[in-house]
């Protein structure tokens, strides 16, 4: 006697056929079964290979009011955030950190400035849009929570930039730790110790984890808290 095949759940069918769960980007409604027809942004699908789903025409129209300017463009990956000085923080920001945030507010393309009050200040920029997003997520978590791991990833990234550009990298590396100590209140030696525990390329590894978790919808990662 033949055994009947186990039935898969309806949600499993959606995932197996579509490659990902379908979630409306406006109201977060999930597709419950195949009879529910979700709409998709054709511009992002055709030009970027990204599927942005909508549960209804009304949600798609609502999204279009703001999405129309970046539909099908890599500008879609721009990281949305409120002005950092206005963002709530879990700690009292130092004057040095407030100054750093103000510099970023004045020049958003500069992700961080090392030795901002000197003539040879190093202004970090990351041209790769997606890696840029990953860095800003780490940086903004440090800005709002003073998270030691996020600060360590910042330090590792800034140290790498200093070592690549500075004529006297050893001295500048020490300055990086001292600057972060002034900004976040952690002793520079403690920051250096945490950085030493990180594997090389911590930012790139975090970025790859983002991409692996959301291969066809990295936009979801923008709203995901860093573990």
Topology:
Layout lengths: L9 H9 L20 E2 L1 H7 L4 E2 L2 H11 L27 H12 L5 E3 L7 E3 L4 H17 L2 H18 L3 H16 L3 H10 L4 H12 L14
Antiparallel strand pairs: 1-2, 3-4
Helix pairs in contact: 4-7, 5-6, 5-9, 6-7, 6-8, 7-8
Provide an overview of this structure:
There is one protein chain. 49% of the residues lie in helices and 4% in strands. The chain has 227 residues and is mostly helical. It folds into two domains: 10-77, no CATH class; 84-223, no CATH class. The protein has a two-stranded antiparallel sheet. A two-stranded antiparallel ribbon has the order 3-4. Helix 5 crosses helix 6 (148-165), helix 5 (129-145) packs across helix 9 and helix 6 (148-165) crosses helix 8 (188-197). The longest helix is centred in the last third of the chain and has 18 residues, at 148-165. The N and C termini lie far apart (50 Å). The model is unreliable at 1-20 and 223-227 (pLDDT under 50).
Short note summarizing the structure:
The protein is mainly alpha-helical and 227 residues long. 49% of the residues lie in helices and 4% in strands.
């Amino acid at each position: 006697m033949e055994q009947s095949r186990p039935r898969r759940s309806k949600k499993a069918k959606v995932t197996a056929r579509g490659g990902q769960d379908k979630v409306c980007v406006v109201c977060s409604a999930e597709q419950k079964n195949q009879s529910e027809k979700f709409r998709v942004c054709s511009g992002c699908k055709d030009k970027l290979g990204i599927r942005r789903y909508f549960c209804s025409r009304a949600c798609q129209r609502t999204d279009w009011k703001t999405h129309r300017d970046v539909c099908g463009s890599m500008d879609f990956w721009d990281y949305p955030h409120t002005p950092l000085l206005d963002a709530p923080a879990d700690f009292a920001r130092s004057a040095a950190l407030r100054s750093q945030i103000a510099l970023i507010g004045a020049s958003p393309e500069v992700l961080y400035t090392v030795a901002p009050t000197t003539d040879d200040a190093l202004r970090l920029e990351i041209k790769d849009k997606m890696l840029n997003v990953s860095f800003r997520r780490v940086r903004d978590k440090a800005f709002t929570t003073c998270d030691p791991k996020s600060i360590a990833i910042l330090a590792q990234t800034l140290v790498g930039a200093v070592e690549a550009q500075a004529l006297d990298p050893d001295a500048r590396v020490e300055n990086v730790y001292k600057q972060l100590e002034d900004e976040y209140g952690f002793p520079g030696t403690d920051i250096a110790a945490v950085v030493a525990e990180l594997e090389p390329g911590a930012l790139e590894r975090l970025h790859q984890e983002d991409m692996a978790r959301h291969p066809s919808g990295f936009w979801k990662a923008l709203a995901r808290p860093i573990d």
